[in-house]
Design goal:
The complex is a heterodimer of chains A (184) and B (285). Chain A has 184 residues and is of the alpha/beta class. Chain A contains 6 helices and 7 strands; from the N terminus they run E-H-E-H-E-H-E-H-E-H-E-E-H. Chain A has one domain: fumarase, CATH 3.20.130.10. Chain B is of the alpha/beta class. A 4-stranded mixed sheet of chain B has the order 4-2-5-10. A 4-stranded mixed sheet of chain B has the order 6-9-7-8. In chain B, strands 1-3 form a two-stranded parallel sheet. Chain B starts with a strand and ends with a strand. The chains are: A alpha/beta (184), B alpha/beta (285). Chains A and B meet through helix 5 and helix 6 of A and helix 3 of B. Chain A: Pfam families: Fumerase_C.
Amino acid sequence: MAEHRIETPVSDEDIAKLRSGDKIFITGYLYTGRDSAHKKLIELVKEGKQLPIDVKGQIIYYVGPTPARPGNPIGSAGPTTSYRMDSYAPTLHSLGLKGTIGKGSRNEEVKESLKKHKGVYLAAVGGAGALISKSIEEAEVIAYPELGPEAIRRIKVKDFPCIVINDMYGGDLYQEGKKKYQKD
Amino acid sequence: MKVISLAKVRDTIKDLVQKANFELQDDVVDVIKEMEKKEESPAGKEVIKQILENAKIAKCDKLGLCQDTGLAVFFVELGEDVELKKDDGLGSLRDAFFEGTRAGYEEGYLRKSVVEDPIRRKNTGDNTPAYIHWEVVPGDAFNVTFIAKGGGAENMSAIRMFAPAAGMEGVEDFVVETADKAGSNPCPPIIVGVGVGGNFEYSALLAKKALLRKPLGSHNSDSFYADMERRLLERINNLGIGPQGMGGRITALAVQVEAFPCHIASMPAAVNIQCHSHRVLSFSL
């Protein structure tokens, strides 16, 4: 299990270094988005319209945070379950999105898409939203404020901790980890 | 006759929903610490460390343990000898629960996670309605148990109507299969609530009630079901899913089973999956 520090935006070379099971710390900007925001983004793509964010080289964090207390940039901000965004992820990969952060397994289409578009799927620890909020320095709603917790935010992170689940080579930590520890 | 003020109910609920979301209760922390000793995988140990660290920060900073601060689910035992005092403009006990939930989620900077329609999906903006299960009981008790139930784990729950011939094995295989299928999605290590018997809707309610048993990890008083709980916990932990699904010995913290009489033709079974962020709190007035 290697450790990496990466900065956004990320390049194909950054992604090529990552293997399932590696620990990474991200510094830079991430975009947040979950169910409703993804639905809107994909509708825009289908209509051939411009997206409110340029996803090229970027990482989307699947999160719907709690409201920020005064003086804090954000509230509790752990990952949500990723499979709900499976139907949307390949389209965004094809537009240059390099990474997604969530928790839980992805379907085969997403894993194939990661190989094809040189992308990576990362997990943060679900249910550790208070701890994770400490790596978030700024947050700004940049699209769909009417969605409340589901709005798209641009967040500035420092040493944001993740684990590589699916790499661009077909590696899958969930499958590998389970196989290693299962008993008959 | 005991008189209970609706304003008092509202205010207690306002505080309760916040405390439950900020403070992981001792019985849950104890089970997690116990399981930490048994975990062998480095990733699993790291996850458990972060879960315990998260609990300290959430309590200290009054932050949601999880950003999914849940649907507000209440189980209420209302004594038939209780008189309700409609004070402070509150017209009903239901209003007191809704107002308390609304105020608590607002004051505590908790997330509003309810949409007003399942298809059209507009957020209600105040985390109501609360989901209230009423039970009228003899005497003058007024007991309330709250669970903040997140969507990720709830989505992994399942119900099946078995033929009685499926027996104990059928039910146990179903519980293990449900945990296995859930895999990394519901934020393992999970807690598994199982309801066996009743009818279609009652088994689901039993499964949720099973999650509320305190202290976490205690066994059914019927040794038949206590043994089932032990077998199921072992089988689920042998799946290898581990903390957050990254591989490990600890996939579940506890399995809690409740049973109830059922129809001669039926054997319903429901499995309610709960994440490690088990936010359950009770009060009595």
